[in-house]
Amino acid sequence: MAQPSKNRTTILTYSALALIWGSSFLLMKLGLVGLSPGQVALGRIALGACTLAAIMRLTRRRWPRERRVWAHMIVIGATLCTIPFTLFAWAETVLPTTVASIANATTPIMTLLLTPLLIPAEKLSRRQSIGLVTGIIGVAVLVAPWRYLAADGSVSLPGLAACLAATLCYGFGGLYMRKFLSRTGLDAVTAAAMQLTTASLLALAAAPLISLEPVRLTPSVIAAMLALGILGSGVAYIWYTGIIRAWGPARASTVTYLTPVVGVTLGVAVLGESVHWNEPVGGGVIVLGVLASQGLFDRRKRHGDTPPVASPAALR
Question: Are the C-beta atoms of 92 and 28 separated by less than 8 Å?
Answer without folding.
Answer: yes
